[in-house]
Design goal:
By secondary structure, this protein is an alpha/beta fold. It folds into two domains: 161 residues, Alpha-Beta Complex (Quinone Oxidoreductase, Chain A, domain 1); 142 residues, 3-Layer(aba) Sandwich (Rossmann fold), CATH 3.40.50. It is 30% helix and 26% strand. The protein is built from ten helices and 16 strands. The strands form three sheets. Strands 3, 5, 6, 7, 8, 15 and 16 form a seven-stranded mixed β-sheet that branches. A six-stranded parallel β-sheet has the order 11-10-9-12-13-14, sandwiched between helices. α10 links the parallel β15 and β16. The longest helix is centred in the last third of the chain and has 17 residues. The radius of gyration is 20 Å and the shape is globular. It starts with a strand and ends with a strand. Bound molecules: NADP nicotinamide-adenine-dinucleotide phosphate. The site of NADP nicotinamide-adenine-dinucleotide phosphate has 29 residues, from α1, α3, α4, β10 and α10.
Amino acid sequence: MKAAYIAETGSPDVIRYGDLPDPQPGASQVLVKVGAVAVNPIDTYLRGGIIPMPLEFPYIVGCDLAGTVESVGSDVTRFRPGDRVWGSNQGLFGRPGTFAELAAVDEQWLYATPHEQKDEQAAAGALTGITAHLGLFLHAGLKKGEIVFVNGGTGGVGSAVVQFAKAAGARVVATAGTDEKRTRCESLGADLVLDYHSSTLDDEIRAFAEPNGGVDIWWETQREPTFDRTIGLMKQRGRIVLMAGRDARPEFPVGPFYVNDLKLVGFAMFNASPDEQRQCAEDINRWASSGEWVPVIGQTLPLSEAASAHRLQEDNTLQKQGTLTGKIVLTT
Ligand SMILES: NC(=O)c1ccc[n+]([C@@H]2O[C@H](COP(=O)([O-])OP(=O)(O)OC[C@H]3O[C@@H](n4cnc5c(N)ncnc54)[C@H](OP(=O)(O)O)[C@@H]3O)[C@@H](O)[C@H]2O)c1
């Protein structure tokens, strides 16, 4: 099979596209004929060797996939050949990645693809969707009617947070960097979309959230959280969600944090159990079928261009070039 893989960690140039042996599914595994995969920032950190995770070379890159079941192992009960499936959480903790024509994936990490969704969309919403769901519901305990602020509302994770929060009955204020992206974010359902460059940004958030007593959930997608301003905009008993910025060491105003009964919630999606992730997938599929969840795809490329896709992801997540809106999808 053709695959995008690395033989050593390094820059995007270490990604090779070529032939590797077809995987043989184990008893609990499903052999998926991959239709589409999506790039996530963590793929680039693993390829670059900047986060500690065991990698067996040749290592196939990628966490997300969507495709069609080719065959199943003897213990598989939920899928059969011909079923359409999507999933994430591959390429981690010693598991091979997904950027290949075939992938052998444990059935616990796979979900049925709603017939309304193409493989491209299901792959685009996989890791980002599960992340958004875990953060909003398992970790931050979102309740109907609450105000959610999303810093970066058209990014991979941010665009999922906006849509899921709306689907759950929240009011959403989000930020984006250009007029075009702000219009896009409004079309995702955000009640108010602000320019993160604006010098009056905090006044505008305050004005929106004031009748509520402040922001209930602050979802920070940025790698440098700004606690001094964030904490002042929160409602009592609000929750601040952190999920990026391993090296960040920001200042933290302890007094205003604890006297307002605030909570700081950090999480990484790959720590969630298969059952927890499947619960997310059930809502995600329901919202995909009802049209409340439409993953945002910014760029579609052939799998052979995996190295360019990693460069584009890094240009945006690390260099903040703003040249991407949503996910990069690759097709086989
Ligand atoms: N903990 C976890 O489980 C988990 C899971 C997934 C991702 N992550 C991490 O979460 C981060 C975001 O991932 P992603 O896939 O959503 O990345 P992404 O698609 O590259 O999105 C980046 C977002 O940042 C926004 N942005 C850039 N500069 C900004 C600024 N100054 N103020 C506010 N927003 C700004 C961008 O907005 P514009 O496009 O409008 O400029 C865009 O919405 C990454 O660091 C990733 O590693 C963590």
